[in-house]
Design a protein that fits this description.
It is globular, with a radius of gyration of 22 Å. A hairpin with a 2-residue loop joins strand 1 and strand 2 (58-61). 38% of the residues lie in helices and 14% in strands. It has helices at 15-24, 84-96, 105-117, 130-145, 160-163, 174-177, 188-192, 216-227, 247-251, 277-280, 282-285, 297-312, 315-336, 362-375, 392-414, 418-421, and strands at residues 51-55, 58-61, 66-69, 123-127, 149-153, 180-182, 199-204, 230-234, 257-260, 271-275, 342-347, 350-355, 378-379, 383-385. The structure holds pyridoxal-5'-phosphate (PLP).
């Protein structure tokens, strides 16, 4: 019998997952299209690898085991799986068509909605992936300033200009690599120290887990204005989640350009670029930013329905409230169990468990927690990506599962037997990193 969500489960049977995985090995390089969903982020041998169904905050794997999901498709499922109002909008649009030979009215309707919500949205463009939008923003910034260099902080997608600052920079011409640099979040001096006359744009995730300190974001905005640098907020995570209009609304800062995706369409593929008219207008004729599926109507219908629901139900407030129960609950349990080496950090709408090295390899600690949570029916990568479908019942069950799992971790740490308690292979580090990630300070 497949597992249900229960504190008394055995490890799930994952035969079908493993069978699919074995078929993918050798056929699909790296096995996955989305690194964060791939096997490297899940305890090999314990965690399922393929999901086939979702409803609300719950998912079912290929073997029929049920879980409460806290990854939510790595961000997009802001309302929840199979959310009726969004799915109905998609189905209604499907009756009329998916992609057309001319523009579709939804392109205008959704742009107007976004203009009303996103503070800097004097103009709006769509594309399909987050990387499309960040790359378009970078191209616009270069065209507008007639400069070349890009300073970035966070993760901005798979395109050359960004991946060149990471360790996976093979296949990228040196000339491209020579124009991208990173800076440290909350370290205005690292930004100032990296600026020369050729910096076109500063692009960053306005927040990841740490909060901005000492007015960091405002100082960045001032610096950009002073030096004629385009400030780009990459709001893939913050947008339509931290506040409807994202971090720019939350912090009261208007970046020159901003990029959105994930939460805005509850799982449908769309990304959005917003910004100052005079910069965005360069997309009229100066720069080229077009793609076949840019105005695909199912995603636009989903976006419209999702935005209405996010706004009508004040979903950002709900994510904050529910997430707070989980984040504070995690830390309270750890304290009760006298585990000073772990706590939950970050914002309530997306918190993360952190593990100190003093208790052993943090990745093995996280893996052990994941193993124990999966056994109890919670799909857990250490992140709590909250959605509108995470009910009190889900949170209470998850806290009960966390309490038992943390007790297992405590025992393993005390017996110096972390690796022995872990039945599968530990997870790999997440690719995203926000500090000191292959920093390439400019040589003056
Ligand atoms: C902050 C941020 N920017 C850009 C991207 C790239 O988006 P995509 O994977 O849709 O290209 C991501 C994806 O996770 C992201 O989190």
């Amino acid at each position: 019998m497949p597992n249900k969500i229960s504190l008394t489960n055995n490890f799930p049977v994952i035969e079908k997952s493993n069978e699919l995985y074995n078929r993918a090995l050798g056929l699909i390089p790296s096995v996955t299209q989305t690194l964060a969903k791939g096997p490297g982020q899940w305890v090999n041998g314990i965690a399922p690898k393929y999901l086939v169904k979702g409803k609300g905050s719950h998912v079912w794997d290929a073997d029929g085991n049920e879980y409460i999901d806290f990854m939510m498709g790595v961000g997009p499922l802001s309302l929840g799986y199979s959310y009726p109002k969004v799915d109905e909008a998609i189905k209604r649009q499907l009756e009329d068509g998916i992609t057309f030979s001319m523009m579709h009215p939804l392109e205008v309707e959704v742009a107007e909605l976004i203009r009303d919500i996103v503070p800097n949205a004097e103009a709006v463009r769509y594309s399909k992936t987050g990387a499309d939008a960040t790359s378009a923003a970078v191209r616009l910034a270069r065209a507008f300033t007639r400069k070349n260099k890009i300073l970035c902080c966070g993760y901005h997608g798979w395109h050359d200009w960004y991946i060149s600052v990471t360790a996976r920079n093979n296949g990228i011409p040196e000339a491209v690599q020579a124009n991208s640099f990173t800076f440290n979040y909350n370290d205005i001096n690292s930004v100032i120290g990296s600026i020369d006359n050729d910096v076109a744009a500063i692009i960053l995730e306005p927040v990841v887990f740490a909060e901005p300190k000492d007015n960091f974001l405002h100082k960045l905005a001032d610096l950009c204005r002073e030096k004629n640098i385009v400030l780009i907020f990459d709001e893939m995570w913050t947008g339509f989640r931290m506040a409807l209009g994202g971090a720019q609304e939350y912090f009261g800062i208007k970046p020159d350009l901003a990029t959105y995706s994930k939460a805005v369409a509850n799982g449908m593929p769309i990304s959005i670029l917003t910004g100052r008219r005079e910069i965005m207008d360069l997309a009229d004729e100066d720069i080229f930013f077009y793609t076949t599926f840019g105005g695909e109507a199912l995603s636009l219908a989903a976006t419209k329905a999702t935005i209405h629901e996010l706004r009508d139900k004040n979903v950002p407030k709900y994510l904050n409230e529910q997430g707070k129960k989980l984040k504070d609950g995690y830390t309270a349990i750890a304290q009760k169990l006298e585990m000073d080496f772990t706590r939950a950090i970050g914002y309530n709408w997306r918190s993360m468990a952190s593990f100190d090295e003093k208790a052993g390899d943090p990745l093995v600690q996280k893996s052990l927690m994941q193993q124990e949570m999966i056994k109890r029916g919670v799909l857990w990568q250490g992140f709590h990506n909250m959605s509108y479908s995470h009910s009190d019942e889900d949170i209470n069950f998850t806290l009960a599962a966390l309490e038992e799992s943390l007790a297992v971790l405590k025992n393993a740490v005390e017996k110096n037997n972390l690796r022995g308690t872990l039945k599968g292979e530990p997870v790999l580090p997440v690719f995203r990193k926000v500090d000191n990630f292959n920093m390439k300070p400019l040589k003056k």
